Amino acid sequence: MNTRGNRHLLPLAVALLFSGCGEDPPQALGTLEFDRVTLPAPVAERIVSIEVREGQRVEAGARLLTLERTRTGAQAQAAVAQSQRQREALAELQAGPRAEDIAQARAGLAAAQAQARDASAYYARLQPLGKRQLVAAAEVDRARAAAGNAQAQVRGAQAALDELRHGTRPEQLAQGEAALRAAQAQAEAEQAVLQKLDLVAPRSGRIDSIPYKLGDQAPVGAPLVVMLVGDAPFARVYVPEPIRADVSVGQRTRVFVGAGDGGDERSYEGTVRMIRSEPTFTPYYALTGSDAARLSYLAEVQLSPGVDLPAGLPARVEFAPAPRGPKGGP
């Protein structure tokens, strides 16, 4: 048997077999798209100026529109003032009591001690008179209570003086530092919101839409500007289930853009950058048998950099056919 001749005839037979079948390369249909960047409204303020128009190309950092600053600016100033107040309060705690406060506490202690001595002396004079029943017992009791009260005031004044002498407690300093950090963080947050009132382009791209117009007041989080960004568009296509196993991330493809009937399609190289693992539309567990072929999987095919095409054009992606197994056939 001439095995050498058979090896030469095998590729030709395979080619004739597939040419006889006349089947097209696996393909998927969709549209051209760009990555979208949405700039939401940071606050519910009125739009006072719009610097761009839809379809305009802008560079990163370009101003797009401006929101009214009156209320947000006042809130930022109040936050800065509160931060300064907490800073001064912490400085007061760190400095400790003033010498004048300590002197005042000493004077209060001396006055309490003098009152205590006077009350004690009066009680000492009444005690023998009370024993001889020369004064009422109630008068003696009042004198004893006044003496005790005066001694308690002396102890309170002494404690107040000791507190000033010992200075600020570490726990109070920690509380003051925490309050200052919180106030500073709030001030930084308000300043960040104030800066966001001037919306700027985060990346170079094209303005796709401006949903709100001059004078509108959009709610918080509403999209103010939608941008299309990226060096080139990508084809968002739906891969049929029969060829899903033959499509993988990084696979090279051909992307045809435009209507195909009139021969106006333009061809570009592309690379599969994403394909979903879950089917779109009907879930897989709802289909059985041949119905499973109706499933489709969303995929994205990135075109080469430098391709300048608008979004929304119809696109057709052809994948290189995968090698067939022993049971494959037309």
UniProtKB/TrEMBL annotation:
InterPro entries with a match to the protein in the record: HH_YbhG-like (IPR059052), UPF0194_transport (IPR050465)
Domain YbhG-like alpha-helical hairpin: 75-187
Main location: other
Highest taxon above the source species: Bacteria
Keyword line: Coiled coil
Localization (cell): Cell envelope
PANTHER family on file: EFFLUX SYSTEM COMPONENT YKNX-RELATED (PTHR32347), UPF0194 MEMBRANE PROTEIN YBHG (PTHR32347:SF29)
Protein name: HlyD family secretion protein
Organism per entry: Luteimonas notoginsengisoli
